[in-house]
Amino acid sequence: xxxxxxxxxxxxxxxxxxxxxxxxxxxxxxxxxxxxxxxxxxxxxxxxxxxxxxxxxxxxxxxxxxxxxxxxxxxxxxxxxxxxxxxxxxxxxxxxxxxxxxxxxxxxxxxxxxxxxxxxxxxxxxxxxxxxxxxxxxxxxxxxxxxxxxxxxxxxxxxxxxxxxxxxxxxxxxxxxxxxxxxxxxxxxxxxxxxxx
Length: 197
Fold this sequence. Notes:
The chain has helices spanning 5-18, 25-32, 38-49, 72-75, 87-99, 104-111, 117-125, 148-153, 165-170, 176-196; strands spanning 54-59, 62-67, 102-103, 129-134, 142-146. By secondary structure, it is of the alpha+beta class. It is globular and about 55 Å long. 13% of the residues are buried.
């Protein structure tokens, strides 16, 4: 068991450095013991590595070291261009990210079209989506959620960091059709208010 703050800091640093995957607080405690303030130690380590070539980051309540974002291009190896996600896969990923946990039927209801099984397979192979159990309704459909790899790939600490509607509009990522439909919806709401008056 570690009692000295320096020993705890060094032990946490070593455990994270050799870990094969991001570690939760519980997993870290299994390595370094219960002595000391683990949250404060992680904050101190994170501050120590801020501005360096590697950073200590938290993704989905798990901690790991990663290359500083501004240096990632140095370590990127030339490789075959990976297959790009189809529009259907991107839409499905967005629905899962914003509405998780969500079933295939719920994804189809939001998209308005059927989801091909291959679409979910591609997202699971990429490591961004995982089965998250079964919905407690008749038929017990499988439900899906995003993974820590999804958060890490998109540089998110948690799902709360996903962009909102205003952010998407400001970035010009909403289709003009979406904006027109949104305007019609708002206008329809105004007309209904007028009729009620």
